[in-house]
Amino acid sequence: MTIKNKILVVDDEPAVRESLKDWLQEEGYEVGLASSGEEAIEMVKNEFWHVVLLDLKMPGLDGIETLQTIKKLEPEIEVIIVTAYATIESAVESIKLGAYDYVIKPLDPEEVELQIKKIITHHEPATENIFLRQQLEREYELDQIAGQSEPMQRVFELITQVAPTDSTVLITGESGTGKELVARAIHANSPRCYGPFVAVSCGALPDTLLESKLFGYEKGAFTGATHSKKGAFEMANDGTLFLDEIGDVSPKTQVDLLRVLQQREFRRLGGHKLIQTDARIIAATNRDLVKAVSERKFREDLYYRLNVISIHLPPLRERKEDIPLLTRHFIKKFAINLHKNQKAVSPEAMKLLKEYDWPGNVRELENVIERAMVIGKGKKIEPEDLPITREPVIMKGKPKALSEVEKLHILSVLEENNWNISKCARKLQIDRQTLYNKIKKYGLPPPDRRKK
Length: 452
What we know:
Layout: E1 6-10, H1 14-26, E2 30-34, H2 37-46, E3 51-55, H3 63-73, E4 78-83, H4 88-96, E5 101-104, H5 109-123, H6 126-139, H7 150-162, E6 169-172, H8 179-188, E7 197-201, H9 207-215, H10 232-235, E8 240-244, H11 251-263, E9 265-266, E10 275-276, E11 280-285, H12 289-294, H13 300-306, E12 309-312, H14 323-337, E13 344-345, H15 347-355, H16 361-375, E14 380-381, H17 402-416, H18 421-428, H19 432-442
Helix pairs in contact: 2-3, 14-16, 18-19
């Protein structure tokens, strides 16, 4: 979601806390965790929470005492009591003391979500709405997509033109050019800005998981489906659904997506009820879909459904005049995030940044600047602070094949992070299995098998 409502989960059982955190974060909430009443009270003192999910029975300060203290500190915070069957009487007592309602263990996620949505809909102060709107506008102003070059100015103009509409948008460009950032800018500058922004990476999931992620499922639809769950099309209702890596979806999923785009309705896995969706669709791909259509790898009718408005993001090597601006933008960002002083860039370092061809595009530049801010010891970023000085991947003349560019970029990130797969996957913004597959595909040897 573009605007995240904050939920505090208070429970002494780690498994309960973590499962609720995972589920609520999937629904778009910002989640905090407390393992005791005492810890919860300290967190309430330090920041505002929209809803507190509070376990009734805990060692030390129990739920009733914690509830009373929270309501004294922040009367505006709504508290949902979580209880077992044996303590319903105590839960009812807690309502008299100011709790909004109670839910019974084992928890039904949809019941919890219903209670949270009731609170957010009916109890969110108007003054907070104003604050959140200002926060959103600051976060997603168009100048956050830094660029003064002519190609980027055309992108800004298109964003401004399409944002007020409900038209489907297809964003194309190499990996790392900022396709999701453009999608978020369109959403944030649209009439749907207060609705959810739901992003799904279609290329990172096998068919069965992608289907459940997109359309949701009913309880009992498959082994492990212990409760019903909404899919992305349902969660993005009245907002925006961003389908990243759309060019990687299977023929079967293409048919399913086409049906939803045409009819604006779908069924959950294992369900019979037709569910309407009013989500605006923005898709993105780093593949040549026109070529994929001609090769019969991508449905032509789906392509035309998606490609109502097309926005192409140029690779960084084609807009190098934006590198100084982007560099300053990232220095400012990481100075705040890393609690560092802002740094200048030496002429030698800037020359190196401009000469490098950036196979990982803006994402790679961001990673390089973050590293330089962390390890650099002087007041300026120098060439020795830049890992590209040690990587012979500066490409002269015509750009190399996209597969070679990707291979070089992945190798660079792997070496920079000592082949820590989890860390590299996060840096590359892909899952671990996708990274393993690409390492195998490009035959990248691990460090102990490489020539010294």
